[in-house]
Amino acid sequence: MDINNSVALVTGANRGLGRAFAQRLLERGARKVYATARRPETVDLPGVEVLPLDITDLSSVRAAAEAAQDVSLLVNNAGISTGTDLVTGSLEAVRHELETNMFGHLHMIREFAPTLAGNGGGAVVNVLSAMSWFGGKGANAYHVTKAAAWAMTNGVRLELAEQGTLVTAVHLGLADTDMAAGWPVHKIAPSDLADAALDGVEAGSAEVLADQWSRDVKSRLPLTPEEFNAAMNQAMAALLAA
């Protein structure tokens, strides 16, 4: 599909990657951009149409779908990271991450699928992570939710193919946003990530590996778990030492 003249809805558009998606959509000629957030008053980007949206609240998702029946591109960007481990961390926090990072995206896809079909098929972008494929102490809940979101993305891609809806999974290492503020390593600029994702949509790509880190991690998936963990430990050490 063409980004030019499209009608897009972006979740979590008040800051970070979501704001960058909304801005680049406008700059690339989208006819309308719905910028959504739990607190709509925090959206400060001129030229967008602001909608309140909590992706963990099904009634809120349905209200957004009712208000935005002209959408042809859905960008599922909103997500959280609680820094929770699986064995010793709060199970409530793990569930909260799952409700946001996987079920929240699925709520959006289920409610907007008929709209996308009615508007010619369109596309869905799910912002995932290289952590779809690896975990780490202090981030294992996040890993589980992104792995689940990756599997969900692969499933809905098959289900929505019949109605002509493209589903694009976007993976990245770290972006220069508040969520990654504590990591003194190279980070992809939010606008570059948005462009890579939108270029992928226009190319009809099922998957976008937006940076070298995500490409490197995925290339190691054929390794045994022992080999994979050793390679990841080495890569992390080199990344932090750079």
Shape: globular
Low-confidence stretches: none
Class from helix and strand fractions: alpha/beta
Quote the average pLDDT.
94
Walk me through this protein's architecture.
The chain is of the alpha/beta class. It has helices at residues 16-27, 58-67, 91-118, 140-160, 190-203, 212-219, 225-241, and strands at residues 7-10, 32-37, 49-52, 73-76, 123-127, 166-171, 207-209. The chain has a 7-stranded parallel beta sheet, with helices on both faces. Helix 1 links the parallel strand 1 and strand 2 (32-37). The longest helix has 28 residues, at 91-118. The relative contact order is 0.13.
What is the fold's blueprint, element by element?
Layout: E1 7-10, H1 16-27, E2 32-37, E3 49-52, H2 58-67, E4 73-76, H3 91-118, E5 123-127, H4 140-160, E6 166-171, H5 190-203, E7 207-209, H6 212-219, H7 225-241
Parallel strand pairs: 1-2, 1-4, 2-3, 4-5, 5-6, 6-7
Helix pairs in contact: 1-5, 2-3, 3-4
Pfam family, one: adh_short
Keywords: Oxidoreductase
Family: Belongs to the short-chain dehydrogenases/reductases (SDR) family.
Nutshell version of this structure?
Belongs to the short-chain dehydrogenases/reductases (SDR) family. This protein has 242 residues and is α/β, with parallel strands linked by helices. The chain is built from seven helices and seven strands.
